[in-house]
Amino acid sequence: MENNKKNSRRYFLGNGLKLSLATALGTIGLAKFTSKLKAKTDNNTVETMELMTTDGTLIEVDTSEVVDVKHSKDHKKKYNLREGMPNRKFVMVIDLAKCKNALKCQIACNKHHYITGDHAWIKVYKMQEDEDTAPYWMPTTCMHCDHPACVTVCPVDATFKRRDGLVLIDNERCIGCRFCMAACPYSTRVFNWSEPAYGEETEITMNMHMQHVEHNSIEFTGMPSVKGTVDKCDFCPHTIKENILPHCVTACPNGVFYFGDKYEDTVTNGEETLRLSKLIVDKHGYRLMEGLGTKPSVYYLPPVDRLVDFEDGLKDFTDFKSVDKPE
Amino acid sequence: MKNTDKLTKDLAPRKFGKAGVIWTWSLIVISVLGIIAYIDQVIKGQMVTNMNDYALWGIYISNFVFFVATSFVGTVTVAVLRLTNNSWRTPIVRIAEIISLASIIMAGITIMIDMGRPDRLLNLFIHARLQSPITWDVIIIPTYIVISLLLLYFPLLPDLALLKKHYKKTKPKLSKWYGKLSLNWTGSDAQKKIQLKSIHIIAILTIPAGFMLQTIDAWLFSTLFRVGWDSTNMGAYFISGASVAGVGALVAVVYVIQKAYKLEDYITDYHFDKLGKFLVLTCLIYLYFNINEYLLPQLTSKKEEITHANVLFTGEYAPLFWFVTVGGLVIPIIVLLFKKGRKPLPMFLIGLLVVLGSWWKRYLIVTPTLLHPFLPIQGVPESWRHYFPSLHEWLITAATLAMALLIITILVRYLPVIPIQRTAEERELLKKEENNKS
What we know:
The complex is a heterodimer.
Chain A: H1 2-43, E1 48-52, E2 58-62, E3 90-95, H2 104-112, E4 123-127, E5 136-140, H3 149-153, E6 159-161, E7 167-169, H4 179-183, E8 190-191, H5 203-214, E9 230-231, H6 237-240, H7 247-251, E10 257-261, E11 266-268, E12 273-275, H8 276-282, E13 298-301
Chain B: H1 2-11, H2 18-44, H3 59-70, H4 72-83, H5 90-113, H6 123-126, H7 133-153, H8 157-166, H9 172-181, H10 189-222, H11 234-261, H12 269-300, H13 303-313, H14 318-336, H15 344-370, H16 391-414, H17 420-437
Helix pairs in contact in B: 1-17, 2-16, 3-5, 3-11, 3-15, 4-5, 4-10, 4-11, 5-7, 5-11, 5-16, 7-10, 8-9, 10-11, 11-12, 11-15, 12-14, 13-14, 14-15
């Protein structure tokens, strides 16, 4: 009996609450509606503004009719890591005429990505396609292809293509099947065959681990590298986000690397800023293995009118070593 | 009825002799060694293998491809011989089904050994992407395992019921198990009708499934740019190669079982003769696709193709290539074309040679291609220009092979390798025909 009473009381209270809530909402709604009606009749002839439609004609509209379009704000949103930076398309131009195999790009890249394996992400190839053709030095990064073969074959979407052109790897998802490595015609991908050998806890590795804790995101590939997963050149999203050029670009003493945005049609090596389309046309730029249809984001300028002799680079050439290991 | 009793006595699984016990234990020991090596690999990472950023796949993958190929024997003998009404298949189909099941199970396990992060296996389902050939493999391999299992199981039902009766007094426990597995088989017409229909459906299903399995396996390679893989020939090449590997393995296993169980009355020279003709047919088809694969590119002589071919014909891998081509293909064809070559013992030796050739053939498909990428190999340790499996890889691979043989051994130990009921029915039919004639 006691129980029953309590229940009915609770029931009454609940209903009462709902009812009062409904009336409150109703009055607010009504007030809004009437005010709108008023506004329509009152301000109709007072305030108007001129707008241009998408096809270029000017129209005059009532200011009260102007409302913010929802998606117009989306540009400002913080960018999605898997989507990329909005309205950007990063490209690189590598001028083979300037490269003399100084290897500063490789050293900087190894250092800043804490590469401790046997295989650097940036390599400077000693190229000579045939006995009868001229030798030249060719630095390679990841080509960040627009039709990336590696992304197509990845079974778990661990490697992915962003709208800003970058091909990145989520090494927390990678299952280590190495199918992407087999797919890449540029042999650009490296595998962490064991726990990365960072050596003793130094200031550098401490720095890396702190950075990892601070920004634990796919933008920081290789910081730290994860055993049993794939790594590769990432176009340094952690620096370009801050409007700083990738490490290889700033490290090169000869200005070989130009980095930029295809939509802005500009590339810069830190010293000079050039119009990308004009540069490609003027210097007969090309991309590696165009025939495969991978559509790389890295353009090469042919090694013509070389600034330094090819032989100059030979003193730095080591066939079997691209990474200095920590002691 | 008396007839079946004698057959059951002859064909019921028997305890192993001394040789059988030693054989089984050595397989177990090899398997355990491999498991230890694998645990070490998981702890230390794949550093313990001799794979590297260029030879990024090694014998784990080629061994996987070998298992997938061998598992094709189920499709090729059971289904194809069944649909073409070749009645000589009766005593060998169950052995083929057993090999098929063991191989495909081991294929599924072997591919996981190659993963850098086996702990993330579930990602293959959670984040699966349908355009990746690996996802196709993830779908087709379990499918084929189920189909192979059913293909083995459905025809077994009457035999299991027979065995239940056979062991009722001598081994009541074993008899109970057979009884449970026989799903209350009584041999009534209704049951027979359902069973026949089921077998027929599975036998037909196994053909597209088997072809898909082999083709997807080929596409793992031919969807990539690399020279030696980027070939439209691959699908058919793999299917025909799988027939060779499968039938070769079948010949070898059939011979061993015939000798071990003394089944000369049931598996006769006639069956070996037929199997020999079947094997030579598959070899000839495979030879045709080999010519397509290796000789045709010589005519256009693209630079990369020629480099690849030279490595195989005259370079580093030439001894292996010629062993695989001559030993695994040409010699079997020549020997098996003669009637004397199709006697049991020469057939057994040829079967072993074919299996060995098939295993190394997969190694040749995987490794040399990886060592000749489009850009030169530079800036990496000298040892990365070559690949030969490490001790860990050999131990683990030997263990997977041993486990496959172990599965076959266990199934042969507890199942009647020759269908009892079917043999009885066929013999009765033969007798009736003879009676009619006389």
